[in-house]
Specification:
Blueprint (H helix, E strand, L loop, with lengths): L41 H5 L11 E12 L12 E5 L12 E5 L12 E12 L2 E14 L5 E3 L6 E3 L5 E3 L8 E12 L3 H4 L2 E4 L4 E2 L9 H14 E4 L29 E14 L3 E10 L21 E11 L9 E2 L5 E2 L6 H18 L3 E8 L4 H14 L5 E2 L10 E7 L4 E10 L13 E10 L5 E8 L23 H15 L11 E6 L7 H8 L3 E2 L10 E3 L2 E3 L2 E5 L7 E6 L37 E5 L4
Parallel strand pairs: 3-5, 6-9, 11-27, 12-14, 15-18, 23-24
Antiparallel strand pairs: 1-2, 1-4, 2-3, 4-5, 7-8, 9-10, 9-13, 10-12, 13-14, 15-30, 16-17, 18-20, 19-20, 21-22, 22-23, 24-28, 25-28, 26-27, 29-30
């Protein structure tokens, strides 16, 4: 959001020459001086509360420039329409900040630099919660220096922003030059494209509470508070949104660096600002405007091609709304033609999406792949994927299970497989509310089961691909409220579905005459949540449970396992290895197939599997025996 232009009547004072014996000239020495008469301390302007006690009043303040973020100057990397100054002689009150942002508009009459001592007269204002001084007059009076104030995360307390979200309480440092003294981890890249920002956290990357903890109201509340106190947003120092060149995408210490969640940065330094993202949108939180160019360390490198061993490989892959129908804004989708379309917004985007998906699937090299978020049409979405994949491989290696459309949702699940490795055994089966009333197919996509025979030895396994109700929208009208225990919306809906799946499999729905069952897919439940517990209680084993903090998705900066591989008791001894192939969740959306927000199309690489989707594939190697 643009601020109203401010007419600046700026007075620039020449630095007074000093001469000990009537000759020579120089600038005023960088020594600490008390504020001149009639000039307020910056801490008086800031006060000890969340807003200035002098809001709306005209004040004169003096301080040293600690951050140059002026417009129309030589520094094109940092443009906020002003600069930060800080008291050289701070008060003794730890609750009041000694720094403040001076707003001087798009065309400042005086160009300040870090280290300038300045006098500023202007009006105190609160702008999106940040205390500022809207300058009417600025003069350079000398020079000085300010050392950054060290901050360690987590801070002692959290506070609540105007959106009702918990954030770290850093009010006493607002506008000051600060340094975060720890090594911080990248926890969220969602806003890198729109606002140029990266969320950082202390103590390593962030994980969802119920990924490793049993659901609990008090525990979840404490978790959210700690997450807030551990986190800070690293901004790019720009007012404009959707930068063509995202400042931090390649800001690493190696030539081939590309930022990933889990990477680290040390001693990051800058001015602390309370604001929304560029353009006045995005999360309202504390943001660090860097004064030293940040450089990241790659501690979570991109994984290579997965290798699971075994005589058959099965994969689960959410392909992020891969629709054969382009979402033109006017098109309709779904079996009844009553749903909005999703996915690619143009033919160009669709070709990019298909190319990247085919690259990822080719490298997966699975004999059977269960897919989620396919357009629910006859077979067009699956056919497009198989055609792109076979073209990528140079031969007809894959085909698909033709289920037609499945019930009435906009998306469905499906299978592709290698007919040279496996053969279909019998027909597919669907679990819906007609089979078990506990399975709400208005909320969950029907479970799709298909038995496969390994041609090498005749062994049979039944794969069940699932996509249960998301946490994104409420099921309260169904009597399934969010209990604030970490499991989110619709937990009972997913749990009932899991119980129904387990009971359904006990009936051998595909008539395979084999007890080997593998449940895969996006269950939309983290590892310790009730749906996974229900499957465990029914005798199934979550193949990822033994891993430390497994994850396939990052939401709100916290990683967690939404995608699972759950095996029947007879199948568990035949499991060689289960891998989460982290090609998607840790990557910024900036490099996916989309072309929105004026994105630089050159960032896209069709031959790279990274960010083919937003979920990581799960790969299971089996030594399947007959």
């Amino acid at each position: 959001m643009q601020r109203h232009p401010i007419i600046l009547a700026l007075l620039s004072l020449l630095l007074v020459p000093l001469s000990a014996c009537g000759g020579g000239s120089g600038t005023a020495p960088a020594v600490s001086i008390a504020p001149p008469s009639g000039t307020l301390l910056i801490s008086d302007v800031q006060g000890s509360g969340s807003s200035s006690p002098l809001d709306g009043q005209t004040v004169t303040i003096s301080g040293v420039v600690t951050g140059d973020f002026q417009e129309s100057d030589a520094d094109t990397n940092s443009n906020l329409g002003g600069f930060y100054i800080q008291d050289e002689s701070p008060d003794a009150d730890a609750t009041t900040s000694d720094g403040v942002f001076v707003f001087d508009g798009n065309s400042p009459a005086i160009d300040v630099s870090v280290g300038d001592r300045v006098s500023v007269t202007g009006t105190v204002a609160e702008y999106f919660g940040e205390t500022q001084v809207n300058a009417a007059a600025v003069s350079i009076t000398g020079s000085g220096s300010i050392n950054p104030t060290d901050i360690a995360l987590p801070v002692a307390a959290s506070s609540t922003n105007s959106d009702g979200d918990l954030i770290a309480d850093l009010e006493q440092y607002e506008g000051m030059l600060v340094r975060f003294i720890q090594t911080l981890s990248v926890s969220n890249l969602r806003n890198l494209e729109r606002y140029g920002s990266v969320r950082l956290s202390s103590g390593g990357r962030l994980y969802q509470f119920t990924n490793s903890n049993a659901p609990d109201v008090a525990g979840y509340a404490a978790h959210k508070d700690l997450i807030a106190r551990r986190s800070i947003e690293l901004d790019d120092g720009q007012r404009s949104s959707n930068p063509i060149d995202a400042r931090y995408l390649f800001a690493g210490n190696s030539d081939d660096y590309s930022i990933r969640t889990g990477d680290t940065i040390a001693d990051v330094t800058g001015n602390l600002r309370y604001a929304r993202g560029s353009g006045g949108n995005g999360d309202e939180t504390w943001r660090l405007m860097p004064t030293v160019d940040p450089r990241f360390e790659s501690v979570n490198p991109r994984p290579g091609q997965p290798d699971t061993g075994g005589n058959i490989r099965v994969a689960s892959f959410n392909v992020l709304n891969l629709f054969s129908t382009v979402d033109s804004g006017q098109s309709v989708c779904g079996p009844q033609g009553s749903d909005n379309c999703r996915g690619a917004d143009s033919d160009q985007e669709l070709q990019r999406q298909l190319a990247k998906t085919a690259t990822a699937l080719a490298l997966l090299d699975a004999d059977i792949v269960g897919l989620m978020e396919l357009e629910n049409n006859s077979d067009a979405s699956l056919r497009l994927i198989v055609e792109a994949l076979n073209a990528r491989l140079g031969s007809e290696q894959y085909t698909y299970l033709d289920t037609g459309s499945i019930h009435g949702d906009a998306i469905k699940t499906g299978f592709i497989y290698k007919p040279a490795s496996v053969a279909l055994v019998g027909s597919f089966a669907l679990l819906d509310r007609n089979i078990d009333s506990r399975f709400n197919d208005d909320r969950n996509r029907p479970a799709l089961a298909q038995s496969f025979e390994l041609l090498a030895n005749g062994a049979v396994v039944t794969i069940i691909v699932n996509h249960l109700k998301s946490k994104g929208s409420s099921c309260e009208t169904d009597g399934d409220a969010n209990l604030s225990d970490g499991q989110g919306n619709c937990n009972q809906t997913r749990t009932n579905a899991s119980i129904a799946i387990a009971d359904w499999l006990s009936t051998d729905p595909t008539a395979s005459n084999d007890p080997d069952f593998l449940i895969i897919g996006d269950l939309n439940a983290y590892t310790e949540e009730d749906p996974l517990t229900a499957l465990k209680n029914a005798g199934f084993t979550n193949l990822l449970e033994s891993r430390d903090d497994p994850y396939s998705f990052v939401f709100d900066g916290q990683a967690g396992a939404l995608d699972h591989a759950v095996a029947s008791a007879s199948l568990v001894p035949q499991v060689v290895e289960t891998i989460e192939w982290h090609i998607n969740a840790d990557e910024p959306p900036l490099i996916d197939y989309n072309l929105e927000h004026g994105r630089n199309p050159a960032l896209f690489d069709a031959d790279s599997p990274y960010r083919a989707s937003d979920h990581d594939p799960i790969v299971i190697g089996l030594e399947l025996t007959n």
